[in-house]
Amino acid sequence: MYKKFGKRLLDILISFMAIVILSPVLLVLWILVRIKLGSPALFTQERPGKDGKIFRLHKFRSMTDERDGEGNLLPDEVRLTSFGKKLRSTSLDELPELFSILKGDMSIIGPRPLLVKYLPLYNETQRHRHDVRPGLTGLAQINGRNAITWEKKFEYDVEYVNNLSFGLDMRIFFGTIWAVLKREGINSESDATMEAFTGTIVPGTSVPGIKEPETKIPETKASEGESGK
Question: Which of 37, 77, 116, 127 is the most buried (most CB within 10 A)?
Answer without folding.
Answer: 37
